[in-house]
Specification:
Length: 322
């Protein structure tokens, strides 16, 4: 953990100190105070950006939950496997959120420590402003301590910049993954809607085919009945034969029409089956893409764990001095 070097001037004699030496010491501490103020503003901006990111991720979490609930109302057998995968992604996203929260807490703690350092420097500036003379040897010791403090602050700033760049790179990668995840969910919903529509059309075609088959059977029965009907007398033979022939021709036309409709429905049914097969193939491709995305997410998780361990390593380097 980082410790701040404090210049204790409570027991230093100021009788032999020159005004020029006092002014130089005062200028050095004033410059250090200004640098600490700049660093404080940077860390405040980092905290603000991290909180905005936390809010954005919370909003995305609400959207994911809403989409999961809408998917659960569909076909249970088809969506159960996706539900478990989405739940796994939600858990991983929760881990990412927890990591961001922990980073914010660490930045706030670091900011609080810097505030304490600034207060200590302000007290030192006040003490030096009311002093006129300091022993020359003690002045050299204090100057050496100030140089050491500046070097430590400079090293801390460089390491914080490196860590910030890595965090920004991770956030960009996370945005790309979220966009890909939304695209896959949209494609899945579209395929489900198409599958449902084609299934309804196929059911309607089946019902129509059954109706035509029943009507065809009824027409055949009626034709057989007409053919087997006996003639009443010889005088009416020609007229009855003509009536039977007309009826036969009418029934043949109806049968030809129904056969044409049946063949047409059969072709449409074949097309619908082909479309359903195509939808199944598209669904399989989507599943494969989803598996690929899950594998990519696993690799991303490994990179995040490495970044997290590196962050704690830097934290130990920055604050391990006690």
């Amino acid at each position: 953990m980082e410790t701040t070097t404090v210049i204790d001037v409570s027991n230093i004699s100021i009788i032999d100190m020159s005004t020029e030496a006092l002014q130089q010491q005062y200028s050095a501490l004033s410059k250090l105070y200004t640098e600490q103020q700049v660093e404080l503003e940077k860390k405040s901006q980092q905290i603000y950006d991290s909180k905005r990111e936390l809010t954005r991720l919370s909003t995305l979490e609400a959207e994911y939950i809403s989409e999961i609930e809408s998917l659960q109302s569909g076909e249970r057998n088809e969506c159960e496997r996706w539900k478990s995968k989405v739940q796994k992604l939600e858990e991983e996203k929760g881990d990412i959120l927890n990591t961001h929260v922990q980073e914010i807490d660490n930045l706030e703690l670091n900011l609080f420590k810097k505030d304490e350092e600034i207060v200590e420097l302000q007290e030192q500036l006040k003490t030096l402003a009311n002093s006129f003379n300091i022993n020359e040897n003690k002045n050299k010791i204090e100057e050496s301590m100030n140089i050491k403090l500046k070097n430590e602050v400079s090293s801390l700033n460089e390491q914080l910049v490196t860590l910030t760049e890595r965090i920004e790179c991770f956030e960009k990668q996370q945005l790309v993954y979220q966009e890909q995840n939304l695209d896959l969910k949209d494609e899945l919903n579209t395929l489900k809607e198409n599958y449902k529509c084609k299934k309804e059309e196929l059911d309607e075609a089946k019902d129509l085919i059954e109706t035509l088959q029943e009507e065809l059977m009824s027409t055949k029965i009626e034709l057989e009945t007409t053919k087997s009907k006996p003639l009443e007398d010889g005088s009416q033979g020609n007229s009855i034969f003509a009536e039977v022939d007309d009826k036969r021709l009418e029934l043949q036309e109806r049968m030809a029409l129904m056969k044409s409709q049946y063949l047409k429905m059969k072709q449409e049914r074949g097309k619908l089956l082909a479309e359903i097969s195509s939808l199944h193939s598209s669904n399989a491709m989507l599943c494969e893409r989803w598996e690929t995305e899950c594998n990519d997410k696993t690799e991303e998780k490994v990179r995040l764990e490495e970044t997290y361990r590196y962050y704690h390593y830097l934290k130990g380097v920055l604050y391990g001095k006690s």
